[in-house]
Amino acid sequence: MPGPPVTTTDFAEPSNPYYPTGSSIAGWKPNESSVFTLLGAFFGASVVLFTSTFILVKRIQPTLTRSELLTIMWFVLSGTIHIFFEGYYISNFSSLGSQQTFIAQMWKEYSFSDSRYLTSNGLVFCLETITVFVWGPGCLLVAALIVSRSPWRHPLQIVVSLGQLYGDTLYYATSFFDEAVHGISYSRPEAFYFWFYFVFMNSLWIIIPAALIFQSSWTAASAIAAASQRVESKKLR
């Protein structure tokens, strides 16, 4: 006798807790690691990176100021996250939901605040690809230029920081647009996911790059003003 008819529900994706409800995430599996473990590993790795960077650059250039050290550590952290963490995303974006590697689980945890990372969203993928291949190496290059006290530090710092600022602003804007115009929210309603993951963590790549753009612009403007003044002084002699 023929078996029961096959319906589309037999092939439906496993249900998942992401927003908007009903989002299709291929092969989704819940994380095996706890939130505490994932966040502890992320922030612990950041501390190790900061410490090793501090020790290394102080040996190379002992006269670095506190401001220079903080800026170097920011660019090293940013570059590392861009190249390795976000690089993992663009290499595995279509299968993140089904993976249980540690980095994939971090992405699945973060995606409670923005499910676009698990649904092969075109805008997010393109933004992240540019970030990985352009701004990631750019961050590490700026850090190296600061250590070597290169005059090219400030022009490149403006370019890289502007790229980060633009990308993060576009990332925010498209999410807010979809919610305001189409009523689509990519974040779960819990405050922790929206305010800590989505707002606070991403805002660092707006606030700090904006401050660095101002710093480099002020330095460049001051240098140009001083050079112009010297030229005028020579003309009067």
Oligomer description: single chain
Number of strands: 0
Order of helices and strands: HHHHHH
Number of structurally distinct domains: 1
**pLDDT < 50 stretches:** 1-12
Largest sheet, strands/sense/barrel: none
How many DSSP helices? 6
Portion in beta strands: under 5%
Gyration radius over CA: 23 Å
Assign a percent range to the helix content.
55-70%
Shape: elongated
Mean pLDDT reading: 92
Coarse structural class: mainly alpha
What is the distance, rounded to the nearest whole angstrom, between the alpha carbons of the first and last residues? 108 Å
Which keywords apply here?
single chain, 237 residues, mainly alpha, 6 helices, disordered N terminus, transmembrane, EBP, 3-beta-hydroxysteroid-Delta(8), Delta(7)-isomerase
Outline of the structure:
With 237 residues, the protein is mainly α. It has helices at 35-60, 66-92, 102-110, 122-147, 153-182, 191-236.
